[in-house]
Specification:
Order of helices and strands: EEEEEEHHEHEHEHEHHEHEHHEHHHEHEE
Strand content: 15-25%
Oligomer: single chain
Number of strands: 16
CATH architecture of the largest domain: Alpha-Beta Barrel
Strand order of the largest sheet: 6-7-8-9-10-11-12-13
CATH topology of the largest domain: TIM Barrel
Distance between the termini: 17 Å
Number of domains: 2
Shape: globular
Structural class: alpha/beta
Radius of gyration: 21 Å
């Protein structure tokens, strides 16, 4: 498959971009270059598409449900009782709704953690976007279900758009032995590990009471942390713990909107950035956000970083990298940047609307001023999805 994107703005100049075999092959192609499909961008700007590194797609079904409650009340009194009633068909519909929203807002990859994963996988296969689908592990699951999930991990073969991860939910839902066995299962089968970590002060306090250690130190002590781990939230993490995460090569998924809505706290940007940890962005699920708009997540992250007074902390280009290239690289995709040889994942953003004018700085406009209505086209793996 080949695609010629004509008359597109890249780094402030108009050019023609040729895509072939799912990759950018020429960023300065001739207008007459041969391609199976031609897209006239009409002067739109091309930017990297988004990689959402932590969400629960089918939780679109809980959008606006159980709002304005602290995390543990929200989970125990609202979310878990609701989820017990969900059927496979419900999860398919919730996943399809999430995919429509993600594509419409410029996301071409998401890392999921939920149930009935075959339904989400089927929805992803039809949609054209990429995903890492987490096989959720919790202690209350019966042995037969745990065995079935382990079999799935061993038998699954990744494709260019789909991979599986092993997703022990959190230290407060997964005990020591299950954490260890989950990590072993993931590593024996070349899978990444996706886990909630240090999301709330209560989680930290409970972990200290039970183990004598904070969550990061606890997971490190039992051999869980490594370069194959994606740790979501990491709100209550001290300097020494950030050094541990960095030393182990852990990727952190920062979810600013969810953290604020659930009252979890402010992400320690200063410590995270200084540590050198690879930080990415995630939306979390629609029940705690309440949308899947990664552009909005960028703006909120950048503003929340500055709220304590350092206006230079987390610049627009840096937060864009968190939302794009860092997420792609964390999951092994040679993408997240518009460059020859990279996978052709991109969005085309209209420059005509009032929110993009005047354009003193495209990246600044995209992070601080625009909204998802500015997106004209979404491209994943060289194919136009929107």
């Amino acid at each position: 498959m080949s695609l010629l994107i004509k008359n597109v703005l890249l780094d402030g100049r108009r050019c023609n971009i040729l895509v072939r075999d799912e990759r950018f092959v020429c960023l300065d192609a001739a207008e007459s270059a041969e391609a199976e499909k031609v897209l006239d961008a009409g002067g739109a700007a091309i930017l990297p598409a988004f990689y959402n590194t932590h969400t629960h797609a089918a939780m679109t079904l809980l959008r606006g449900y159980g709002d304005d409650n602290p995390l543990h009340v929200w989970l125990e009194e609202y979310v878990w009782p609701y989820e017990d009633k969900l059927t496979a068909a419900d999860i398919r519909r919730g996943s399809e709704l999430a995919l429509k929203e993600m594509i419409a807002t410029g996301t071409v990859f998401f890392s999921d953690m939920y149930f009935d994963i075959d339904e989400t996988i089927a929805a992803v296969q039809e949609s054209g976007i990429r995903a890492a689908i987490g096989i959720t592990v919790m202690d209350y699951h019966p042995k037969a279900l745990r065995d079935e999930k382990a079999r799935k991990v061993r038998e699954w073969r990744d494709t260019d758009r789909l991979q599986l991860t092993v997703a022990p939910h959190a230290i407060y839902t997964v005990g020591r032995e299950t954490l260890i066995s989950s990590a072993r299962l993931a590593r024996e089968n070349g899978r990444k590990i996706h886990i909630h970590l240090s999301e709330t002060a209560k989680e930290v306090q409970d972990c200290i009471a039970q183990t004598g250690m904070t969550p990061v130190r606890y997971l490190d002590s039992i051999g869980i942390l490594g370069s194959d781990v994606i740790a979501a939230h990491c709100v209550h993490v001290d300097k020494e713990e950030w050094d541990i995460l960095a030393g182990r090569g852990v990727t952190v998924s920062h979810c600013p909107c969810s953290n604020m809505k659930l009252g979890s706290g402010r992400f320690p940007y200063e410590l995270a950035i200084a540590s050198g940890v690879r930080v990415t962005l995630g939306t979390d699920g629609c029940s705690s956000n309440n949308n899947l708009d990664m552009r909005e997540e960028m703006k909120i992250a950048a503003l929340l970083a500055k709220v304590t007074g350092d206006t230079a902390l987390l610049s627009a280009p840096q937060v864009l990298q968190w939302a794009t290239r860092n997420g792609a690289e964390a999951f092994g995709y040679d993408a997240g940047v518009i460059a020859e040889g990279k996978l052709a994942d991109a969005i085309l953003v209209s420059m005509d609307g009032p929110k993009m004018q005047p354009c003193h700085n495209l990246i600044s406009n995209w992070v601080y001023s625009a909204d998802s209505s500015c997106i004209k086209h979404v491209i994943c793996n060289g194919k136009i999805l929107l």
